[in-house]
TrEMBL record, chain A:
Organism: Oceanomicrobium pacificus
Designated name of the protein: Probable peptidoglycan glycosyltransferase FtsW
Record EC number: 2.4.99.28
Top-level division of the source organism's lineage: Bacteria
Subcellular location: Membrane
Stated family: Belongs to the SEDS family. FtsW subfamily.
From TrEMBL, chain B:
Superkingdom to which the source organism belongs: Bacteria
Pfam families on file: PBP_dimer (PF03717), Transpeptidase (PF00905)
Hydrolase among keywords: yes
Name of protein: Penicillin-binding protein 2
Lineage of the organism: Bacteria, Pseudomonadati, Pseudomonadota, Alphaproteobacteria, Rhodobacterales
Length: 388, 596
């Protein structure tokens, strides 16, 4: 209801200032966990990126200082994003999605592969950007918007549209090829659909379909088949990446071999990204690994629990999608190193080295924080009778 | 479910009456409905979010536990292939009964390449091609220049080859230690030993696994590190094995046979002292099983333990033993042998016409099919089945060879009276020579069933294993001796060793059905010394033809018997048997002669 008062200058109610309100409503535990992860990331960067710097003829801590700069930028972005209202976040995310999707689609023409066999990056001279990192969180928000729109009586068929979008984006990623990101994207979409009230039967059928696709890929792609074989065989060849990672974890034991004493980072080419957990385990031991896992678990589980009370379906879906995306990425990265999951390159959000990866993680976490902020939830009707 | 209309007519009319806007009612209804949907949706999302949180907790927990488990184990060094790391000899040796080595291990080397460490790939490829004529320099060079960082070149090297490769001085060529299973006696006892091959292979070691014979049967025992110091002692006597193999090989060529087998067994214990099957192979280079052709003609085929043949008249002894055991006949009982014996449209004939009747002893000595068939009918099918079952003809031989376990004797699916008659003289039932040897040991050692074994010092049979009485056993021994002294096996009389035995000549079945009339399996199942048998020897020749006479002779008396006699002549002294002075009559003090 709007009060119309003629002739009187009603002072617009500005409410409380932005920052105190943000501090009051934001999930401070998650915030603390994120800062903790960032600190660990810098610490591990000091250990893991030294061999890379030496290989490239740079000063030992070149990559660490770079990572610190990017990290601070990411943290800043995160804080700014988390102060936005969900509506603002949605608008920017949808615009960002369009931009990122175009960027991904243009990769085959303008991107570079840095000699790694997959065209995933744009080279900007001073830094490289991986647009798919930005595409993921933007896609989650867009999907949540579409799905929640379909709740309305005579709303658009949002779920179907978001599904088609997911398939399209996954196809673009497979073209790079980047099976890991494609799988993650589809999995996150599946979880969001699940929360949005997917029929159980359909979920079972979907799971079966994913399995079927896996079997098909096993038959078709030699690269994929070799990885699965390596995972299924009982013992690891100690001269493979996985073998070195496993040995590093064993070597580290509970408290690690000591700062700078690790050897695995000199052997593994991806020690600063995909296998950073192995470096952590070797130099700092199980303790630090468990701490990292606890921090990720805190972020994911606290966010999900806070979203339990959320009444707005868009916020609920978008928040859950982002939390699940970050959680899955962490689970996959660590799970591969301990051979709970088959080998799949996946960065550890906020901890692995990588400019765009860190900034994108900052954006995603910022949005997550924005969605999990406490806001009025019509608690009265809750008390009076479950939303009647 | 009752559908509520979006426009409740009663309320709309009511609103109209009161002059209110009816669309308000509709909007109110719509809002309420949306609220209800949202609430239901939210409730469902709430449980699903909780489930998801629990799943993530579980996921992180699992990985944490796995990581904890990993970090509490000791790391293994990822070593690069360094020559000189030694693997202990792990597979136990196999020896014969006197401790002579039959299978042992030799340390040798395998050769692999790490192209990224190579100084001169071209020279390495050329050098290797020169040392190993089977390798192609071009192909090697192509493999070296591919992206592979590790490739096998040779699984086994001889010391000379290893030195030659070493002399190439190429740092990218490396040796891995390899244990090699060595059979120092070559083809000797090849079918018993079987063979071995590499199982899982690593740079520093390769698993040796048995693929056939005792190597396969005792694979776990031989690989067990706890017992690796203790050799596996077989019942085989290598010298005897060598002698029999040699004689048999000669006999096979003299008799123009295409295959032969011999089994020498201890009559009281069932220990197999020697088992030979020809043609044979070298287990050091065990050939791959033939993919085409008849597998029973392959050198890998163990004729003694695996080959099922109709063993012919050697089976008559079982019928004779059965009828004596049942009290149907004594050795002197006269049996009608007038031929041919008609049974339905089937006729049973003898090799010669032996007149109207023969004593039981002479039925065996002259090998009368008709007499044996009459006895079998008198004894009846169940009794015949029973004794053959007790003698082990209904099961594969329980010897420690995986191959033997697949050779269950072949017998008619429908056991008619006619089957009983033909089986009484060894036709219509196909068993392995090893079956026959065990059965002969059983009926001649006093009647206690023996179990053939390849292991030294088995348990002796006890009274519980009795198949026939000692008296029947003694009569059987006398008959077997008589066959040699005045019957079909007269060429088998080796002076001083009192050989007894029974010949058997069976026409070979055609694969298309029916029988060949010019291809036989000739068998001689013998015991020595007959009065108190210590050994059983079964010699089988496949398609023998003896050509020294005016016409080709194929019967066992002319083929298998002389070979067996030569074997006994050679091996009896090797086993420490003293020749006995010749006597007219055997004496067997434990049993009185009178019976029935």
């Amino acid at each position: 209801m709007t009060d119309m008062v003629y002739g009187a200058l009603v002072e617009a109610d500005q409410g409380e200032p932005v920052i105190p309100r943000w501090w009051r409503t934001v999930d401070r535990w998650t915030l603390a966990a994120i800062f903790g992860l960032f600190a660990i990331g810098i610490l591990l960067g000091m250990a893991a990126s030294v061999p890379l710097a030496q290989r490239n003829g740079l000063s030992d801590f070149y990559y660490v200082s770079r990572q610190a700069v990017f990290g601070v930028a990411a943290l800043g972005t995160m804080c700014v994003v988390s102060m936005m209202s969900p509506l603002m976040v949605r608008r920017y995310a949808v615009l960002g999605f369009v931009a990122a999707a175009i960027a991904v689609a243009l990769l085959p023409f303008l991107g570079t592969d840095f000699g790694k066999g997959a065209v995933r990056w744009y080279s900007l001279g001073f830094a490289s950007v991986q647009p798919s990192e930005f595409l993921k969180p933007a896609f989650v928000v867009l999907s949540a918007w579409l799905m929640s729109a379909s709740y309305d009586l005579s709303g658009p068929p949002g779920r179907l549209i978001s599904f088609m979008l997911a398939v399209l984006i996954a196809a673009l990623l497979v073209l790079q090829p980047d099976f890991g990101q494609a799988t993650l994207l589809l999995a996150v979409w599946g979880v969001m659909y699940f929360i949005a009230g997917a029929p159980m039967l359909l979920m079972v059928v979907l799971a079966a379909g994913v399995m079927g696709a896996g079997v098909l890929a096993y038959g078709q792609s030699e690269h994929f088949a070799r990885r699965i074989d390596g995972f299924l065989s009982a013992d690891v060849d100690p001269r493979t990446q996985l073998g070195y990672a496993t040995n590093a974890i064993r070597e580290g034991g509970f408290f690690g071999v000591g700062v700078g004493e690790g050897k695995v980072k000199w052997v593994l080419p991806d020690a600063h990204t995909d296998f950073i957990i192995a470096v952590a385990a070797e130099e700092f031991g199980l303790v630090l690994c468990l701490a990292i896992m606890a921090l990720f678990a805190t972020i994911v589980i606290r966010s999900l629990l806070r979203l339990l009370r959320e009444r707005d379906p868009f916020i609920r879906l978008a928040g859950a999608g982002l939390a699940v995306m970050i959680g899955m990425q962490a689970l996959i990265n660590i799970g591969v190193a301990v051979r709970v999951l088959p080998a799949k390159g996946m960065t550890l959000p906020f901890v692995s080295y990588g400019g765009s990866s860190v900034i994108a993680a900052g954006l995603a976490l910022g949005m997550l924080l924005a969605f999990t902020r406490r806001r009025p939830q019509d608690d009265f009707s809750d008390i009076l009778g479950r939303g009647k | 479910m009752i559908r509520r209309p979006l426009r409740p007519l009663a309320r709309v009319i009511d609103a109209r009456k009161k002059g209110q806007d009816p669309r308000l009612v509709e909007a109110e209804e719509r809002a309420a409905r949306l609220r209800a949907i949202r609430a239901a949706e939210r409730q469902r999302a709430e449980t699903r979010l909780l489930l998801l949180a629990a799943l993530f907790l579980l996921g992180f927990g699992t990985i944490g536990v796995k990581m904890g488990a990993l970090s509490s184990t000791v790391a293994e060094e990822p070593k690069a292939g360094a020559p000189g790391s030694i693997i202990a000899a792990q597979r136990a040796t196999i020896t014969d009964r006197k401790g002579r080595v039959m299978a042992t291990n030799l340390e040798t080397a395998s050769l692999y390449a790490q192209p990224q460490h190579m100084a001169d790939k071209r020279a390495a490829a050329d050098g290797l091609a020169e040392i190993f004529p089977d390798l192609d320099a071009e192909q090697l060079y192509k493999r070296f220049t591919s992206k592979r960082k590790f490739l096998w070149i040779k699984r086994k090297l001889s010391p000379e080859q290893q030195q030659a490769v070493h002399d190439l001085g190429e740092p990218g060529l490396q040796f891995g230690p390899r244990e090699l299973r060595l059979y120092p006696n070559g083809t000797l006892a090849a079918h018993i030993l079987g063979g071995s091959s590499f199982g899982r292979e690593g740079v520093h070691a390769a698993e040796i696994i048995g693929v056939a014979g005792v190597e396969r049967e005792f694979d776990e025992r031989l690989r067990d590190p706890a017992q690796s110091g203790e050799p596996l002692s077989l019942s085989i006597d290598l010298t005897v094995q060598a002698a029999i193999e040699r004689v048999l090989r000669g006999g096979m060529s003299v008799m123009n046979a295409k295959g032969a087998s011999a089994v020498l067994m201890k009559a009281r214990t069932g220990e197999i002292l020697s088992m030979v099957s020809l043609p044979d192979f070298d287990p050091n280079h065990r050939p791959a099983p033939a993919t085409s052709g008849d597998p029973s003609l392959s050198p890998l085929f163990n004729r003694a333990a695996q080959g099922r043949y109709e063993l012919g008249s050697t089976f008559k002894v079982f019928t004779a033993a059965l009828s004596m055991e049942m009290g149907l006949a004594s050795p002197d009982t006269l049996i009608e042998t007038a031929g041919p014996l008609r049974w339905g449209k089937f006729k049973i004939r003898d090799f010669h016409n032996y007149g109207p009747r023969l004593s039981l002893t002479d039925v065996i000595v002259k090998s009368s099919n008709i007499g044996t068939a009459r006895l079998a009918i008198a004894a009846g099918t169940p009794a015949q089945k029973d004794i053959l079952n007790k003698l082990g003809f209904f099961e594969p031989v329980p010897v420690q060879l995986p191959e033997a376990g697949r050779s269950k004797p072949l017998m008619p699916a429908k056991w008619s009276d006619l089957s009983t008659m033909t089986i009484s003289y060894g036709h219509g039932i196909a068993a392995t020579p090893l079956h026959l040897a065990a059965a002969y040991a059983t009926i001649t050692n006093g009647g206690l069933k023996v179990t053939p074994t390849l292991l030294k010092d088995p348990d002796l049979p006890t009274e519980a294993d009795r198949v026939i009485s000692p008296a029947t056993s003694m009569h059987v021994r006398r008959m077997l001796r008589a066959v040699v002294t005045r019957g079909t096996a007269s060429l088998g009389d080796v002076e001083g060793y009192e050989v007894g035995g029974k010949t058997g000549t069976a026409d070979k079945p055609k694969p298309t059905g029916g029988y060949y009339d010019d291809k036989v399996i000739a068998t001689f199942a013998s015991i020595f010394p007959a009065s108190n048998p210590e050994y059983v020897l079964v010699v089988t020749l496949d398609e023998p033809v003896e050509m020294t006479g005016s016409e080709p002779r194929r019967t066992a008396g002319w083929t298998a018997v002389p070979v067996a006699a030569e074997i006994i002549r050679r091996v009896a002294p090797l086993m420490g048997m003293r020749p006995r002075p010749k006597r007219e009559e055997m004496d067997d003090p434990t049993v009185t002669l009178a019976r029935n």
